[in-house]
Design goal:
7% helix, 46% strand, mainly beta, eight-stranded antiparallel β-sheet, globular
Length: 348
C-alpha cells in the first residue's frame, strides 16, 4: 500500500501552483486613420478608451510642416504619445510632457498618435471620453494652429482671448483644476484678467472653459458665463510699472544684441507645462556654431550653445540632453524642453 503523506512530486506541483500567477491582460489596441478637413489642414475626432484599451491614430504629414496635437479628456489619467514614422520610441510622451504636442514635422510619413490610460487607471478599468484635435499647417500659420474647427455645440470655437467680466461686489472667479466646482482651486481671478482661450465644454449643466494665463504659467477651468471676448494683452515689458514699484530688469534676450535672426520656437520652462511659442534670437558663428537665446514664460532666458551643428551646453546648471529627428533638435535641460530646427542654427 502507498505510504500516507504527500509525495515529492505532489509537493512540487503545489509549490508551482503557489508561485504561478496569470499574466496581466495585454493592452488592446485598435487603429484608425485621421482624414484632415478644412483644406487638408485640420481634424477633430472624439472617442472613448476604457481600462487597457488604446487607440492609435495614423496621420500622414510632410516634412517641414507644423503639427499641433491636443488631447482633452474626462479623466486626467488619459494621455497621448506621438511616434514619428518608423520610430520605436515616442517623440512626445504625454505623461511626462503634457497632452499638447506642437512642433516641426521632421520627416515625411505616417505619424502615430496613441491615446491610452495610465497603468493605475487601466487596472481599475476606468473609462475616459476624449477629444483629439490635430492641425498640420505651414510654418507661417503655426501661431494659429491651436484654432479648432467649429463644432455643432459651438463650445470649442470662440476668440483667442477672454476677459473676466460680470463679477459683482468685488467677487473673484475661481480657476479650478477641472470643469467642476468640486475640483481643486488653483487661483482666484479678478475682473479684467485676460486669459487665453483653450476651448469650452458642458459639464454639470454649466459652460466651462479651459483657459491659460497669457504667459503660459498656469492653466485651468472657469465658468464660461463670466467670460467675454477680448484681445491679446500687451507684452509684459510694455506695461507701466505700478506707482513706487521699479520696472523689472529686462532679460538678456530682450536686450539689444546683434541677432542674425529672431522668431518663435516651442518651449516649456516649467515641469508639466505644455509646450508654447517662445521668442528666440540666434547669433550664428559659422561652421555649425551658434548661440540661441530663448525667452521663457517665467522671464528666464535660456542660452543654448551649438558647436559643429549640435547643442553642447547652456547657461543652466542642469545637464543638457538632446535627440535629433531629421532637421529638428529636441533639447532637454533639466525639466525644460526646447524644439530647435536646424535652420535656426545654420540659417539654411
Amino acid at each position: 500500500m502507498p505510504r500516507s503523506g504527500s509525495s515529492p512530486i505532489l509537493a512540487l506541483l503545489l509549490l508551482a501552483g503557489l508561485c504561478w500567477a496569470p499574466p496581466a491582460p495585454a493592452q488592446e489596441t485598435r487603429s484608425e486613420r485621421i482624414a484632415l478637413v478644412e483644406g487638408g489642414t485640420r481634424a477633430v475626432v472624439q472617442g472613448m478608451v476604457r481600462g487597457r484599451e488604446a487607440v492609435d491614430y495614423l496621420i500622414a504629414a510632410p516634412a517641414g510642416k507644423w503639427m499641433r496635437i491636443e488631447l482633452t479628456a474626462t479623466s486626467r489619467s488619459a494621455f497621448l504619445n506621438v511616434h514619428a514614422p518608423g520610430a520605436t520610441e515616442a517623440m512626445h510622451v504625454g505623461a511626462a510632457s503634457g497632452n499638447i504636442f506642437a512642433g516641426l514635422v521632421p520627416v515625411t510619413g505616417d505619424y502615430r498618435i496613441s491615446v491610452h490610460l495610465a497603468p493605475a487607471a487601466a487596472r481599475r478599468n476606468q473609462p475616459a471620453r476624449y477629444t483629439l484635435s490635430v492641425a498640420v499647417v505651414d510654418r507661417a500659420d503655426a501661431a494659429t494652429a491651436h484654432r479648432q474647427p467649429e463644432m455643432a455645440d459651438e463650445l470649442t470655437g470662440g476668440p483667442d482671448f477672454w476677459e473676466v467680466s460680470g463679477l459683482r461686489g468685488g467677487r473673484r472667479l475661481n480657476l479650478r483644476d477641472g470643469p467642476s466646482a468640486r475640483e481643486r482651486l488653483l487661483r482666484q481671478l479678478t475682473s479684467g484678467t485676460v486669459l487665453r482661450n483653450r476651448g469650452c465644454r458642458l459639464a454639470e449643466g454649466e459652460r466651462w472653459c479651459r483657459v491659460e494665463l497669457p504667459d503660459g504659467s498656469l492653466q485651468g477651468w472657469v465658468l464660461g458665463r463670466y467670460l467675454r471676448e477680448s484681445v491679446a494683452p500687451p507684452p509684459a515689458a510694455a506695461r507701466p510699472a505700478a506707482a513706487g514699484v521699479p520696472a523689472p530688469e529686462q532679460p538678456a534676450a530682450a536686450a539689444l544684441r546683434p541677432f542674425d535672426a529672431t522668431g518663435l520656437l516651442p518651449c516649456a520652462m516649467v515641469r508639466g507645462q505644455p509646450s508654447r511659442e517662445c521668442r528666440f534670437g540666434v547669433e550664428r558663428r559659422g561652421a555649425g556654431a551658434a548661440v540661441v537665446d530663448v525667452l521663457g514664460s517665467s522671464g528666464v532666458t535660456r542660452r543654448i550653445t551649438f558647436e559643429r551643428g549640435a547643442p553642447t551646453g547652456s547657461n543652466s546648471t542642469a545637464e543638457l540632453h538632446f535627440e535629433r529627428f531629421g532637421e529638428l533638435f529636441l533639447i532637454r535641460i533639466g525639466d525644460e524642453r526646447f524644439e530647435v530646427p536646424e535652420e535656426v542654427v545654420t540659417g539654411r
